Amino acid sequence: MSPESFAQVSNLVIPTATVIYALAMMAHALEWAMSRAVAVEQADDTEAAPVLVGAAGASTGSTVTSGAGASSTGSASDVTASPRAEAAGRVGLLLTYLAFVLHLAGVLTRGLAAERAPWGNMYEFTISTSLAVTAVYLLFVHRYKLQWLGLGVTLVVAAVLGLATLALYTPAGPLVPALHSYWLVIHVAAAAISGGAFTIGGLASILYLVKSRAERKVLAGGTMPASLRRLPTAEAMDGTAYKVLAFAFPLWTFGVLVAGPIWAEYAWGRYWGWDPKEVWSLVTWVVYAAYLHARATAGWRGSRAATIAIVGWVVFIFNFVGVNLLVSGLHSYAGV
Fold first, then answer.
1. Inter-CA distances, 291 with 20, 106, 135, 255, Å
2. Residue 2's pLDDT is what?
3. Could you tell me if residue 199 is inside a domain?
4. Does residue 235 contact residue 71 with C-beta atoms inside 8 Å?
5. Per-residue model confidence (pLDDT) at position 127
6. Taking a C-beta distance cutoff of 8 angstroms, is the pair 106, 127 a contact?
7. For the packed helices 122-144 and 182-219, what is the interaxial angle rounded to 10 degrees?
8. In total, how many domains does the chain have?
9. Where are the alpha helices (DSSP H) in the chain?
10. Which residues form the Cytochrome c assembly protein domain (predicted)?
11. Which pLDDT tens digit goes with each residue over 34-45?
12. For residues 251 and 194, is the Cβ–Cβ distance under 8 A?
């Protein structure tokens, strides 16, 4: 196939993947809606004996009371599950796998069309980073049973891909001379993968704050909103966020603060120049370093750690979108 043919395939496959991600999001939304309906029907039983649910697994149906035991895996409880809700969840996950395969094909054919690594501009970096978000999610679904993040992940990826397709699209073409370096490949690949993990950690931290508040309400004698009963314990989600961010931080450190300056020296003749992108990449690193340091030395857990993780994700998003689109700098033309 010619580069033009690969470009046509990519231009077709990426929007198709966007639509399928949106369908997966709808399936996960339906899953939660059905779970909520079942929880309302079970309200009398659950209010009589409120339980803070951990990771049970459909095969055992067991629960835990303080986020201990099986909850460390971060999987959702089946206390409010119903056959229809479980079916909707499976459909959502299968659609996510299908969208991921098409998304991957779109990124690969974009690279073949441009005859280079597919991250030479903002459009390419956006589709590659959103691919990394899904890849990290599916990896952790397999390892830690994180299906409960499906709604948030598909919402974010569908929105990002839609933005890329409608507002950021750039025809495939050659790189500017400054981008011809294998250090660029290392730099951007590491940034994209760690950015995907930052997104998963940010979503888990947001849900942690929501669930922990509901658990405190239960302990005070109140009831937990039905829509939250399908989530794991807050403690399990806190542990999930930590695992993901502990994986991402060293990758960001190497890819952005080591490989990035080496590429900058090749491209611009200096390792560090306080370009806006470099500054915000360093700020991102500092926030996540503070998160891990606070957990390791001060014993920070729970809401304080989750707040830092969310701040780090917001800083990363600004670095990813705001700096590229709103601030003029050496990285502006590259989109990386």
1. 35, 35, 24, 19
2. 85
3. yes
4. yes
5. 94
6. yes
7. 50
8. 1
9. 3-41, 43-48, 83-114, 122-144, 150-163, 182-219, 234-254, 260-268, 276-297, 302-317, 323-326
10. 119-331
11. 866 554 444 444
12. yes
pLDDT-wise least confident of 17-31, 141-155, 174-188: 174-188
Q: Is residue 133 part of a domain?
A: yes
Confidence of residue 51 (pLDDT cuts 50, 70, 90): very low
> Mean pLDDT throughout 216-222?
83
d(CA 237, CA 204): 6
CA distance 224 to 289: 34
What does the alpha-carbon distance between residue 202 and residue 295 come to, in Å, rounded to a whole number? 16
Count of CA atoms in the C-beta half-sphere (13 A) of 86: 11
Position 69, amino acid: G
Residue 98's CB: how many other CB atoms inside 10 A?
A: 16
User: Whole-angstrom Cα distance, residue 266 to residue 157?
Assistant: 33
Residue 40 lies in a domain: yes
- The reported pLDDT for the residue numbered 116 is 85
Query: Residue 50 pLDDT > 70, yes or no?
Result: no
Is 33 part of a structural domain of the chain?
Answer: yes
- pLDDT value, residue 144: 81
Q: Are 122 and 50 in contact (CB under 8 A)?
A: no
What whole-number distance in Å separates Cα of residue 140 and Cα of residue 76? 13
Which of the residue ranges 24-28, 183-187, 222-226 has the most confident prediction, judged by mean pLDDT?
Answer: 24-28
> What does the block give as tokens for 214?
């509901």
Q: Measured between alpha carbons, how far is 282 from 276 in angstroms, rounded to an integer?
A: 10
Q: How wide is the angle at C-alpha 44 spanned by C-alphas 39 and 50, nearest 5°?
A: 80
Contact status, residue 130 vs residue 99, Cβ threshold 8 Å: no
CA distance 102 to 127: 12
- pLDDT, residue 182, reads 80
What pLDDT is recorded for position 37? 52
Decide: 150 and 93 in contact? Cβ < 8 Å: yes
Cβ burial of 14 (10 Å; 0-12, 13-18, 19+) is buried
